[in-house]
Amino acid sequence: MFTWKPIYSELARVLLAWCSRQGELIAILHLAKEQGVPVSALQDEDKKGKRFPLEVIDPFTFFAFFSRKTLDENRVKLLDLIKAKLTLTSALPTDFEGLPVMNPQKSWFFSYQKDRAAFNYYLTVTNPAFTQYNNDMYYASIALNQAIAECVGDGGG
After folding, report:
1. 45: helix, coil or strand?
2. Taking the CB of the first residue and of the last residue of the chain, which one, N or C, has fewer CB atoms within 10 A?
3. Angle at the Cα of 127 from the Cα atoms of 124 and 128, rounded to 5 degrees
């Protein structure tokens, strides 16, 4: 039970160093989709309503891609790919007990380009509203809404 904790913790630490490598994180999601892992839209939208490939992503939205309502085997497949690409050492989980499941239709923690202020990955992960709880996932999730609202927009997308 709770076998997801080691890889989730390791990934959270590793993602701090990826603020300038968002394109690579998005590429991992594209690769997963190419390999048949269900991944929702990787499309942004500009002020004219034109769709274009996603160019930015924050760590919480990245986490949401494998925390969506889907089969556990799909979550493990995506985590396996992430583990390989980010050279994580933790074991893959055999369960996801106790983790909340994201609504796939509302799992971006930033708005479309047309509705968001300047995007800043670093502010998202260093905002005091979030980091003061970095060792307690429950309280961190409560603070998450505040941090996202302050850093990257209204949380839609």
Report:
1. strand
2. N
3. 160
pTM given for the model: 0.72
Q: How far apart are CA 120 and CA 21, in angstroms?
A: 12
What sign for the dihedral angle of Cα 134, 83, 70, 149? Answer: positive
pLDDT digits (tens, 9 = 90+) for 34-78: 999 988 888 888 889 999 998 888 888 888 888 888 889 999 999
Q: How far apart are the C-alpha atoms of 138 and 47, rounded to whole Å?
A: 36
Cα→Cα distances 79→73, 76, 115, 138, 142, Å: 10, 5, 30, 21, 24
HSE toward the beta carbon, residue 25, CA cutoff 13 A? 24
Residues 56 and 19: their CA atoms lie apart, in Å, by 10
